[in-house]
Q: What sequence folds into this?
């Protein structure tokens, strides 16, 4: 409400769940329930195959990594599920499990593998929805054609190319579904979300598609012994991904610790850098910045005040927005020099150095950091009605100091968090 301090939670959208999310979850639930009921009614065809692929999917889900700030990743489970969806033969013997049994086995195995994640309170609903719908799509594309004998003429390299094409189409559908669900949940722009999903597909997604195709072809020739052989490289890849994610988390924590030096020295209020970083990242999302650009933006926002450590006389309450333009630029240049000495990415130093320039001369990240920092300082000083007063002051400063698009993006982000805003003038 107006007059109360707003705490921004990234990605939080108040109100009822979006209709797209309800439809996606409901569709996955209906498909999974129908597949389980059909499989229980007609029995499991080739139980050994179902058990082997089910164990592979369950192990992949148990090893799923969803660290802080990272997308959930279960490449082994995804590859095993897709391989079973595209399986037509086992050691030269035709299989007749059908699409519904594929979905049933994947649902049962994924639920079993998600138990530890649910116990730890991790998000699983969207992950399971994507798994069920994408595997169901792949199975419905392949299994009916195989059962009707339409694929017998696709032998040798043609069959392998067909599997790869189906897997690529499935991966594209999964990326589109993930972007749509994320957009519905967070209201972030759809284009950048889809771009990030496609970029991720080119990385670990390509390994998943390749492994799924090779598994399916290898089982068709040598049988189930091919599963552990071709699972090991992907499992090692997943382990490397977890280590890389852990290094990134440690790196971010190190930068956050450096940023807290201004708070410990009494130059800035407690939590100021973190609040600016969280809100800057949300505004960057709203403006369509990509994943790497958001990382640079977050690091720069965390360290935007570090130049105050070089001042003999500290700025009262760390409020640099009320200083003269020359003094702001001097502090920004001092901060950029400190950032360069820490060994952080040079792009971060550039953003810190340029945050005090006129916005027409700044990169987008510097424009965001400057506007969000000014907003946070104005809210702290304005008292009752602080958020609305701060936004009005920012709008009045759009002639030179703040980019209008950044200010309005900040207003939209705050509005989604429940703040009532006046219309833009």
A:
């Amino acid at each position: 409400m107006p007059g109360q301090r707003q705490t921004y939670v990234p990605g939080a959208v108040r109100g009822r769940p979006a209709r797209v999310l309800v439809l996606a979850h409901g569709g996955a639930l209906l498909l999974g329930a129908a597949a389980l009921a059909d499989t229980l009614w007609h029995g499991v065809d080739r139980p050994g195959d179902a058990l082997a692929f089910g164990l592979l999917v369950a192990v992949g889900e148990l090893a799923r990594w969803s660290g802080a700030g990272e997308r959930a990743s279960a490449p082994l489970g995804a590859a095993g599920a897709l391989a079973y969806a595209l399986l037509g033969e086992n050691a030269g013997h035709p299989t007749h499990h059908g699409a519904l049994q594929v979905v049933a086995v994947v649902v049962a195995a994924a639920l079993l593998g998600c138990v530890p994640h649910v116990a730890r309170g991790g998000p699983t609903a969207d992950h399971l929805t994507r798994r069920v719908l994408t595997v169901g799509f792949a199975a419905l594309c392949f299994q009916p054609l195989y059962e009707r004998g339409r694929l017998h003429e696709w032998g040798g390299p043609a069959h392998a190319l067909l599997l790869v094409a189906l897997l690529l189409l499935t991966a594209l559908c999964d990326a589109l579904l993930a972007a749509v669900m994320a957009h519905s949940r967070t209201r972030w722009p759809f284009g950048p979300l889809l771009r990030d999903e496609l970029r991720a597909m080119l990385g670990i997604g390509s390994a998943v598609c390749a492994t799924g195709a090779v598994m399916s072809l290898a089982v068709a020739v040598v049988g189930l012994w091919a599963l552990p052989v071709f699972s090991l490289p992907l499992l090692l890849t997943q382990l490397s991904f977890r280590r890389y994610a852990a290094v990134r988390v440690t790196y971010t924590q190190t930068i956050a610790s450096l940023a807290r030096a201004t708070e410990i020295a009494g130059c800035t209020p407690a939590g100021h850098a973190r609040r600016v970083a969280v809100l800057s990242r949300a505004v960057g999302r709203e403006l369509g910045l990509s994943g790497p650009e958001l990382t640079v933006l977050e690091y720069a926002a965390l360290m935007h005040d570090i130049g105050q450590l070089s001042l003999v006389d500290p700025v009262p309450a760390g409020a640099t927005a009320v200083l003269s333009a020359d003094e702001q630029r001097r502090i920004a240049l001092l901060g950029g020099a400190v950032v360069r000495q820490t060994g952080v990415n040079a792009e971060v130093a550039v953003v810190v150095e340029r945050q005090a320039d006129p916005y027409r001369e700044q990169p987008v990240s510097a424009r965001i950091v400057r506007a969000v920092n000014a907003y946070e300082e104005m809210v702290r000083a304005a008292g009752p009605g602080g958020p609305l007063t701060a936004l009005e002051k920012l709008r009045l400063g759009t002639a030179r100091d703040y980019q209008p698009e950044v200010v309005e993006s900040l207003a939209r982000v705050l509005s989604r968090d429940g703040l009532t805003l006046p219309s833009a003038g």
Q: What stands out?
A: The two ends are 21 Å apart (CA to CA). Residues 1-16, 419-425 have pLDDT under 50 and may be disordered. Strands lie at 89-90, 93-94.
